[in-house]
Design brief:
The radius of gyration is 25 Å and the shape is elongated. The two termini are 46 Å apart. It has eleven helices and 14 strands. The chain is an alpha/beta fold. The strands form three sheets. Strands 6-7-8-3-9-10 form a six-stranded mixed β-sheet, sandwiched between helices. A four-stranded antiparallel β-sheet has the order 2-1-4-5, with helices on one face. It folds into two domains: 224 residues, 3-Layer(aba) Sandwich (Rossmann fold), CATH 3.40.50; 76 residues, Alpha-Beta Plaits. It binds adenosine-5'-diphosphate and magnesium ion. The site of magnesium ion has 4 residues, from helix 1.
Length: 336
């Protein structure tokens, strides 16, 4: 078996820069995506995700940076890169006026497949993406999820080993999103390398081996979901009460308390109107901290009805790194 070191990374970028006029879209980013893995570029609108995908897939040239995709240098051998990859853009590339099948056959022609081979590939992919029934209908009648699946099916016609997916599930309903996740997982289990962009923390957490958080053209962090979660505080112990009086007393005691890690820091949550009377105490979830919190609760005579330990999630990470609390609050880009 012959493998070269260049094949251990499907995608490598060093010092990638791109500006549009005086607007810097990518401000020197470094990435390495191991072959056969899923890499998520996570960031809010305008972060530079599409720019990164377009550059790495040869559609736009970088201003600076050392870039290799599939072992080929993007600057000197873009043709070889093009032959190795498939790209599904943020906005659908399918032609709405013709049928799904016709779109697939067009793609087969572009890849110079023989007529027979093209038909065979089209049928196979339409089946795999659950589009057999829709195949003879114009794409303009498809749902968003169906268009996305067709888009991806078209991307796979040439059998690429590296695939770029720019926001593959933006605008999809939860069911279609889960279907897309299933398809992506299947691709990866077949050894394909997937580079995807997303605004959804859950999606990155669900699919990606490694996640890079992109904000304003810069990488704010890079790592596995677990590594990123460890970067930020945000873990806490939550106490729930059913008795409003007990809740009130605990809230007062907590405000006056000097807790081991962050004195006086307690957030009283919950409204007296419902049963969600809860208090949060910051904690890293370690045995030592939990013990001192429990000791303190005992000594203060506080008895919560429920005590739960929360570790930080990707939302906490995103907030800490980008200052954007909830990406879904951002204005939606026009989705076809
Ligand atoms: N063709 C272009 N001309 C000028 N500015 C652009 C162009 N494409 C992207 N930009 C700008 O570059 C930044 C990054 O855009 P983009 O890569 O599309 O971000 P994302 O995909 O993360 O939403 C944005 O500020 C955007 O307005
Ligand atoms: Mg984009």
């Amino acid at each position: 078996m012959t493998t070269t070191t260049s094949h251990s990374s499907a995608i490598v970028a060093k010092g990638l820069r791109k500006a549009y006029g005086d607007k810097t879209a990518l401000d020197g980013i470094d990435l390495a995506v191991p072959t056969g893995s899923v890499f998520a570029l996570l960031g809010p609108n305008g972060a530079g995700k599409t720019t990164a995908v377009k550059i790495l897939s040869t559609l736009v040239t970088a201003d600076a940076g050392e870039l290799r995709v599939g072992g080929h240098d993007l600057a000197t051998d873009p043709q070889a890169v093009r032959a190795a990859i498939g790209v599904t853009g943020q906005f659908s590339a399918v032609d709405g006026l013709i049928t799904g099948e016709e779109n697939m056959l067009l793609m087969a022609d572009l890849h110079l497949l023989s007529r027979r081979e093209g038909r065979r590939t089209a049928v196979e992919l339409l089946e795999r993406f659950d589009l057999v029934e829709a195949a003879k209908k114009p794409v303009s009648t498809y749902s968003g999820g169906m268009k996305r699946r067709l888009d991806l099916a078209m991307t796979l016609v040439g059998g690429p080993r590296i695939i770029f997916l720019d926001e593959p599930t933006t605008g999809l309903d939860p069911r279609s999103r889960h279907a897309m996740w299933g398809i992506i997982r299947e691709l990866v289990s077949g050894g394909v390398t997937v580079f995807l962009t997303t605004q959804y923390l859950e999606e990155a957490d669900e699919l990606a081996d490694r996640i890079a958080v992109l904000n304003n053209g810069r990488l704010a962090a890079e790592g596995s979901a677990d590594e990123l979660k460890r970067l930020v505080p945000g873990g806490h112990v939550r106490l729930r009460f059913t008795d409003p009086a007990a809740y009130q007393a605990a809230a007062v005691a907590l405000r006056e308390a000097t807790l081991p890690r962050t004195p006086g820091f307690a957030r009283a949550g919950g409204t007296p109107m419902d049963e969600a009377l809860s208090l949060q105490i910051p904690s890293d979830g370690s045995q030592r901290e939990l013990r001192s919190i429990l000791d303190w609760l005992d000594s203060a005579g506080i008895e919560a009805d429920e005590l739960t330990v929360h570790t930080p999630d990707l939302d906490d990470v995103f907030f800490a790194l980008t200052g954007t609390a909830d990406v879904s609050d951002q204005p939606e880009e026009a989705v076809r």
